[in-house]
Design goal:
Elements: H1 2-13, H2 22-47, H3 64-67, H4 74-91, H5 106-121, H6 153-167
Helix pairs in contact: 1-2, 2-4, 4-5, 5-6
Length: about 170
């Protein structure tokens, strides 16, 4: 969450910078959206559904009860990650030179999005009607299920469409 906070502060303040050109700022924003989505992706892979913090950030000097956020559902987390990666893909460069090989590209953003949506469509997160009693004890304070309890064919369609976006980039390697 520290990385997510730093990225949110960056995204909220980079437009005030006068030293970078507009294309440089756009690329840096794309990288920040990619990294914020990737941080959330790593969190949900490790811990399941997590709280999604507001994009404008939170005032960490307040009392715990004022800044405590409930967990979002797994599907809400994946939707947030997917939306962040779409923003990143629109801003990122299509290819990088040898000096910038570790920086994300449009293809990296779209591929990460496709993988997140594929995980969301998988049987673990999209139970078949024959599956019973899956994650029924994973609920928030209001009794809302944090993991899908019903099968949704649309998740597979979203995952397939995201994978097609990657293929249509036409990049080789």
């Amino acid at each position: 969450y520290q990385g997510i906070r730093h990225l949110s502060v960056f995204l909220n303040n980079i437009d005030m910078n006068k030293e970078f050109s507009e294309p440089e700022i756009a690329d840096m924003k794309g990288q920040a959206h990619f990294l914020r989505a990737y941080c959330y992706w790593m969190l949900i892979r490790s811990f399941g559904p997590v709280p999604i913090l507001p994009d404008e950030g939170i005032d960490y000097t307040k009392e715990y009860d004022e800044i405590a956020y409930p967990r979002n559902s797994y599907d809400e987390c994946v939707d947030y990650i997917s939306n962040e990666l779409v923003k990143a893909a629109m801003l990122l460069e299509e290819a990088r030179g040898p000096q910038d090989i570790v920086r994300p590209t449009r293809g990296a953003a779209l591929a990460t999005r496709a993988k997140a949506l594929l995980y969301a469509a998988s049987p673990l997160n999209n139970p078949r009607p024959t599956d019973t009693e899956r994650f029924t004890d994973l609920v928030d304070d209001e009794g809302r299920y944090l993991m899908a309890q019903e099968y949704n064919e649309e998740k597979w369609a979203k995952a397939a469409a995201a994978a097609r976006d990657v293929v249509e980039l036409g990049r080789k390697g």
